C-alpha cells in the first residue's frame, strides 16, 4: 500500500482579528409601530431592542461581508493572500448557487482561498469557528476567515407581531489562525431537529414559486406572502433560557474555566431577556462583562456574536486577551458554545 | 411525596421572589401573576420551568396561558404533580 503523507497543522488556533459592518440606516421602534399594533415600551421590555439597522439595496450580503472582513483582516495584521479558506454563515443570501463565499473571497483579494457557505442559523458563528479551528489544526489552511452575515429584514414579515421588531441586518467577521497556546476551547454543539417547527421559513421557495397557497399567510391581494421567518416565541424562549444555559455551562466545564475565570460573556443576541436569564442561571459574577448589543442591533442571527465582540472591544468594555464564553442558538434548532481568548 | 397546597404556594412565592423580586408574602392564591405580581409573559415562562423542576410536574406551553393566578397554578400542580 502506498504511503500517504499527512498534512501538518498548527498546535492550536486562535481568533486573531474581528471586524463588523452595520448598515447605515438606523430603524427605531417607531418605524416598526407603523405596521404592527405594539408599543415602544412593550418592545423594549420584552426584547431590549431600541433600534436595529436595515440594509439598503447596495448593502448586499457580499458587500457587508467584504467591509467587515476587511476590518478583521487589518485587525489580525495579515494580508488577504494568506487566507486559506473563507466560511460564510448566512440564511439570507438569495442566490442558491454559487455560494456567496466565493465572491467575497475574490473581492477581498485572497489567493484562490477555498470558499463555501454554511447554514446553521443563529449558531452559524460557532459552527464556522469550529470548522476554522479544525482546518488550522489539521493543516488545510493557515488562516481562515469566518463571516456571519444576514439581511434578515428581507425575511421579516412586518405585519407579524411576534417577529417584526426582532430582526436586523449586519455582518461580523473574524480571522482565525495558528497559536502556540490553546485559545479556542472545545465546542459543545448539536441539533434538535424534533423542534425544527419552532423557528422556520413560512413558505418554502418551491411552494412560493408555484403559488401553492394551502394554509399559508396571504397578503391583502390574496397572494402568498413573501417567505419570512416565523417562530413560536414562548417555546423558543423556554428552550433558549433553560437548555442553552446548560450548554453554556458544559462549554465552560469542557474548557476547564470557572465563572470566576471568565471576563466576558457573548451570547447570541436574540433577546435581552434570554441574556439576563442566562446570566442568572450561570451565576456569572459581577466582574463578567455581558454583551447586550441587541439594544441597538436587534437579532442579526449568525452576525450577532462577532458584531457584539467587535463592539465590546471597540468601546473598551472588553480587551484583547480576555477570556470569553460565546454561545449561539437558533433555527434548527441548533446550538454551539465555546470559550475563546479575545483578539 | 406530593406537596400540599401550602407547600406549593410557599414554593411559588420563593420562585416569584427570585424571578420578579416580589416579596414572598405578597404571593397569595388570589393574586394574578401579570396584574399583581409583575410577572409578564416571559417571566411566566421562567416561573413555570422553575415550578416544573421544584414540583416534578410538566406544564406544556398550551396550558401556561390558563394559569392566570397563583391559585390556578397551585391547583394545576396539585393535580399533576408526580
Ligand atoms: C417574541 C417574544 C418577545 C414574544 O413575547 P411573548 O411573551 O412570548 O409574547 P406572546 O405572544 O406570548 O404574547 C404575550 C402578550 O403580549 C401581546 N403581544 C404579542 N406581541 C406583541 C407586540 N409585538 N406588541 C405588543 N404586544 C404584543 C400578546 O397579545 C399577549 O397579550 P395578552 O397576554 O394580553 O394576550 C418572545 O417570545 C421571544 O423573544 N421569544 C424568543 C424568540 C427568539 O429569541 N428567537 C430567536 C432565537 S434565535
From TrEMBL, chain A:
Domain Beta-ketoacyl-[acyl-carrier-protein] synthase III N-terminal, first and last residues per copy: 116-193
Enzyme class: transferase
SUPFAM superfamilies: Thiolase-like
Entry annotated with the keyword Nucleotide-binding: no
Pathway(s) per entry: Lipid metabolism; fatty acid biosynthesis
Predominant subcellular localization, coarse grouping: cytoplasm
BP terms from Gene Ontology: fatty acid biosynthetic process; secondary metabolite biosynthetic process
Catalytic function, reaction form: malonyl-[ACP] + acetyl-CoA + H(+) = 3-oxobutanoyl-[ACP] + CO2 + CoA
Annotated GO CC locations: cytoplasm
Keywords: Acyltransferase, Cytoplasm, Fatty acid biosynthesis, Fatty acid metabolism, Lipid biosynthesis, Lipid metabolism, Multifunctional enzyme, Transferase
Residues of the active site: 122, 268, 299
Compartments where found: Cytoplasm
InterPro entries referenced in this protein's UniProt entry, alphabetically: ACP_syn_III_C (IPR013747), ACP_syn_III_N (IPR013751), FabH (IPR004655), Thiolase-like (IPR016039)
Pfam families: ACP_syn_III, ACP_syn_III_C
Subunit note: Homodimer.
Function: Catalyzes the condensation reaction of fatty acid synthesis by the addition to an acyl acceptor of two carbons from malonyl-ACP. Catalyzes the first condensation reaction which initiates fatty acid synthesis and may therefore play a role in governing the total rate of fatty acid production. Possesses both acetoacetyl-ACP synthase and acetyl transacylase activities. Its substrate specificity determines the biosynthesis of branched-chain and/or straight-chain of fatty acids.
Alphabetical list of NCBIfam families matching this protein: fabH, PRK09352.1
Name of the protein described by the UniProt record: Beta-ketoacyl-[acyl-carrier-protein] synthase III
Species name: Streptomyces tagetis
From TrEMBL, chain B:
This protein's record includes keyword Transit peptide: no
Span of domain EAL: 1-82
Known pathway: Lipid metabolism; fatty acid biosynthesis
A GO term for molecular function: acyl binding
Subcellular location: Cytoplasm
Modification type O-(pantetheine 4'-phosphoryl)serine: residues: 41
Alphabetical GO biological process terms: lipid A biosynthetic process
Maturation and modification: 4'-phosphopantetheine is transferred from CoA to a specific serine of apo-ACP by AcpS. This modification is essential for activity because fatty acids are bound in thioester linkage to the sulfhydryl of the prosthetic group.
Residue ranges annotated for the Carrier domain, each copy included: 3-81
Listed InterPro entries: ACP, ACP-like_sf, EAL_dom, PP-bd_ACP
PROSITE patterns: CARRIER, EAL
This protein's UniProt keywords: Cytoplasm, Fatty acid biosynthesis, Fatty acid metabolism, Lipid biosynthesis, Lipid metabolism, Phosphopantetheine, Phosphoprotein
This protein's record includes keyword Phosphoprotein: yes
Primary location recorded for the protein, binned into one broad class: cytoplasm
A Gene Ontology term for the protein's cellular component: cytosol
NCBIfam families: PRK00982.1-1, PRK00982.1-2, PRK00982.1-4
Family: Belongs to the acyl carrier protein (ACP) family.
Protein task: Acyl carrier protein involved in meromycolate extension.
Protein name according to UniProt: Acyl carrier protein
Species per Swiss-Prot/TrEMBL record: Streptomyces tagetis
Lineage, uppermost ranks: Bacteria, Bacillati, Actinomycetota, Actinomycetes, Kitasatosporales
Gene name per UniProt: acpP
